[in-house]
Design a protein that fits this description.
This protein is mainly beta and 81 residues long. The chain has strands at 2-3, 39-40, 56-59, 76-79.
Length: 81
């Protein structure tokens, strides 16, 4: 699931195939958030209210913290379950 997207910017739908680097949507400030940021999570079902999160790890990149900013180019994501 991706959340906090710019309203009206989604370019894909359920069942669409996507490729690495393809624009899915623009970062926005929708939902319950104080500033624009992307929210990404893996789940075991389609409903965020009833699904459980699936652990994952980023390949080749760390996690920003304490105000750190960086751009990730060409990194992958893999499930750790």
């Amino acid at each position: 699931m991706y959340a906090h997207l710019q309203q009206g910017s989604l370019t894909v739908g359920p069942g669409d195939r996507v490729e690495r680097g393809q624009l899915l949507a623009r970062c926005g400030n929708s939902g319950n958030t104080t500033e624009p940021h992307p929210h990404f999570q893996l789940m075991d079902g389609p409903d965020p209210d009833t699904s459980h999160g699936i652990p994952f790890t980023w390949t080749g990149v760390g996690v920003p913290r304490n105000g750190e900013h960086f751009t990730v180019i060409g990194a992958g994501v893999g499930s750790s379950s």
